[in-house]
Specification:
By secondary structure, the chain is α/β, with parallel strands linked by helices. The chain has 12 helices and 13 strands. The protein has 2 domains: 122 residues, Alpha-Beta Complex (Aspartate Aminotransferase, domain 1); 228 residues, Aspartate Aminotransferase, domain 2. The N and C termini lie far apart (47 Å). The chain binds pyridoxal-5'-phosphate.
Amino acid sequence: MLNSQLPAHLQYIQKLNCSIEGNLSNSCAQSCTFGDLCQLSGIHLDNIELSYTSVQGSVELRRHIVQFHQELNHHKTLINENNVLTFCGAQEALASVYQAILEPNDEVVVVTPNYPSLTQMADQLGCLIKAVNVSSENHWQVSIDDFKSRVNDNTKLIVINSPHNPTGSIIDSALADEILTLAKQFDCYLIADDVSQASNYHHLPLSHSFLDYNKGIVISVMSKSFGLSGIRIGWAITKNKDLLAKLLAIKSFSSICCSALDEAAAILAFENKDEIINNNNLIIKSNIKLFQAFVAKHSDQFNWQPPKAGVLAVVEVTNTRDIKGWVENVTYNTGVLILPATLFGLSGNYFRLGLGQNNFEALLTKLSDYLEKV
Ligand SMILES: Cc1ncc(COP(=O)(O)O)c(C=O)c1O
């Protein structure tokens, strides 16, 4: 059973007792208003029927989702809307897949650090976590040997997330092929948490063929590369019909269906996906440059490796031994929320940096001003 304990990062934010003016650890690209979205399409959504939607998600939306992933990847299997199930966010999709496939004592191989739910949900379901740890010495990069030493006949599930939250490292197409071969060899499920796959501003080979595998599941969402976290639409794609049937049952006992307004807004976002994602990727690239200049100015205090793709990176604070105290002081004195990377399972004096937002420069200036005072 998934229990009632909050994920680590949400527990941390709830305990903070101060007002937050901005989030320098935000994992999303820049959002826009509903008005902006309507304007991009030149339409308004006045005639949406505010009734239940279909449990699977609207056919039109699921066709957009299929096309989106077909453009990003190179699976040969003909995927169509029947292979897609929408959810209220990637979180609901992940929780449903975990509930559908995991049982107590199953082994789950998961890249660590990570988005906390990926580990915590497996833990709550009584599974044994086999962490594939990444480190700064290896540029936060996983290797196939890391997976080979952890995957065995007891492995039920491998979970990967590329571009990686929080480090910004990637699993390129060649490594993805090797991981897929390993999953097939041990007949385990493979979840690709692809929520930031479209934030590929350096045009790296991020495509994969996981959807050719009957136990391959791709998860994505409106919130990360699109930046549209206010549209609570996520999805799971798999060619596995039995799994899809289980997921449908699980969803019908949780959210039942997505909001009609969210579905309509998601369709608008897909109709304008190139413009939205290209704009967001320009913002991320420009924020990376700003942060490079910031680190050059404060080289006695910070060390980082820019992300290869995605919205996030981790930054080492080299002049503290107490990252929690350091980030709390920054937040209490500036109103800028910074999350210590320990919340994501990374020990050491690191914090998570979100590079997707338009207010990044303003928040960085606040941090800079604060550092000059202390
Ligand atoms: C890697 C990863 N997967 C899944 C999710 C869940 O996405 P959502 O909150 O939009 O449901 C997040 C959110 O931060 C994430 O970072």
